[in-house]
Amino acid sequence: MANFMFATGIENSIPTINQGRTRIDQMELCHHYDRWREDFDLVEEMGIQYLRFGPPLHRAYLGPDRYDWEFADRALNDLRARDITPIVDLCHFGVPDWIGNFQNPDFPELFARYAAAFAERYHWIQLYTPVNEMFICATFSAQYGWWNEQLSGDCHFVTALKHIVKANVLAMEAILKRRPDAIFIQSESSEYFHADSPAAIGPAEVMNAKRFLSLDLNYGRRVDSEMYEYLMDCGMSREEYHFFLGRKLKQHCILGTDYYWTNEHRVHADGSTRASGEVFGYSEITRQYYGRYGLPVMHTETNLHQGPNGDEAVNWLWKEWANVLRLRNVGIPTVGFTWYSLTDQVDWDTALREQNGTVNPLGLFDLDRKIRPVGQAFKQLIRDWRDVLPAQSVCLVVPVVPPSHAGRQDAIEQEARLAGMLKRPPAEVGDISGG
């Protein structure tokens, strides 16, 4: 049985800007293609056993049934040899040029075929995030007009969202056919919108309903009446809506919640917003999401700039970890925590909308692969807590299997079927409260 999932990630965002002419590839900007072995050495040095990682979609998926697995083979097989468990991120904010963007209605089926081919080739991989941050991807691409299709408007947003979530659902189904004990860690942004004045209550309520749309559809949960009308008014058909209600995939999922300083928003009367900073905090907002979906939780992303004092990120790490412990102590099954990402990132201060080459000091290591203070702090945190926390697997319907145990796959699946583990509803999930 696996222990609490301390994790980091290799940032593999690939959105396009400049009307599709420019690809922003974080793995390239952060030199991972050249230094991936060194990066994996750093993961081992940290004592981290779980890594959010995936080959960039635009390089691996060359066309219908055409794939380039060279980089994936080298990297993933190296992780397997190290017995580091990958949480495979298949689509991170972008698609190959030949697909176009998220307005393409063919994207869901095409992506499912890629997921199927991936799962066939890497049969030993169990943990997946098929599409990363579905809500943010649709919002930045088709509501704000920043990435990919660079469209602005509710109907463009709904089109992108329904295609993105359908792609995620079809990919989960395709993977499960090849790996019945696969576990999907959603990695979705956890948001909250605060009304700035009485006149802003209405807009804030709409935004606080809208933030759940991606996960409602993904988990087959009926949306509220206002959001149903919103979806229908923006072009979703009843048939498309019922596609999501007919899927039964929730029992294979972990609710991955991402939280940054910018995840809470101050809403003005005219509907405009700005970052409010931390008001409720991770634990309170995650309790809202857990109350809605009732799934085991993993904190799948957080970070903060190191800052001028040098300890800002360290203090944020401590605060986020305290929030994780709070969730466990009030009885919410919480299975993992992630500092994202392993190294610094580039141009995230402008949300990848500009090519400035600005290094954002957010990583456990800088781009020279020198450890930052937050890296030292996270390494110590893992060392202190790894053997203190109860095993996370008691709260999961299906156990997590490390790469070194992948050869026992058939026996594991048979045992799970005999025990009825693959069919038990999430309501029967046990409590792993640490307090």
Automatic annotation (TrEMBL):
SUPFAM superfamilies: (Trans)glycosidases (SSF51445)
Entries under Gene3D superfamilies matching the protein: Glycosidases
GO molecular function: hydrolase activity, hydrolyzing O-glycosyl compounds
Record-level GO BP terms: carbohydrate metabolic process
Top-level lineage group: Bacteria
Pfam families tied to this protein: Glyco_hydro_1
UniProt protein name: Beta-glucosidase/6-phospho-beta-glucosidase/beta-galactosidase
